[in-house]
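Form P-L/3: holo structure prediction, ligand S-adenosylmethionine.
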Amino acid sequence: MQKDLFLKTEGNNYYNRNQQNLDVVNKTSDELYSGYKKYINDGMVILEIGCSDGHNLSQLTKDRKCVAYGIDPSQDAIKDGKHRFPDLKLMVGTADELNLPDESIDIVIFGFCLYLVDRKLLAKVVAETDRVTKDNAYVGITDFDVKIPRKRRYKHYEDIYSYKYDYSKLFLAYPQYSLIEKWNKPSKESVFFSNIEERIGTTVLYKNHKDAYLFEAD
Ligand SMILES: C[S@@+](CC[C@H](N)C(=O)[O-])C[C@H]1O[C@@H](n2cnc3c(N)ncnc32)[C@H](O)[C@@H]1O
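OUTPUT (holo model):
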């Protein structure tokens, strides 16, 4: 399973490769994720799945009184993140098995994570996300925004594939999720790929059971 490879070696390899380009990583992250800020208020509990060392979480919550959880398979990233950002609650793990209580999270963010998840585990990831989120929670997905699903061999490891897909569709199949915002260019400075194969998109979904079904009188 890809998940085991990420837990064993590839999570650490990804993290350690990127330590050489921290300026670029931080700048790109800021451009890509700053659009989430308006959804994050004091008192919220936020979770980033595939958070690396928590640099996005730290940016997103730095002037908010939030509880912020981050999960990533890289032991190195989590160890460094705990040191760098002691206010974050970081843990080693994967998206399909979240070590968090039911209905405890107000906003979940997936930043370039779902494209690495084993296809056999995708449904489990949706179920886990749904389990840990409160009613009225937001789910944010930043990933490649393609019209046709595609897979590509991961250039750093032959047995791993990355999968481009509109992952919001997995949640939108359920009536309790609605699409409330989508952006392909969050700010003037951010990169926009005119080539649809490389285009990056963010979708923000809102979960609400109360209004999901119209009540039919008997
Ligand atoms: C491309 S990086 C993105 C990191 C960060 N979200 C960002 O945007 O800077 C993908 C991250 O997902 C993690 N990852 C890979 N497979 C995962 C899985 N099954 N569950 C959770 N995270 C995973 C990797 O370890 C890596 O840190």
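COMMENT: The chain has one domain: 2-207.
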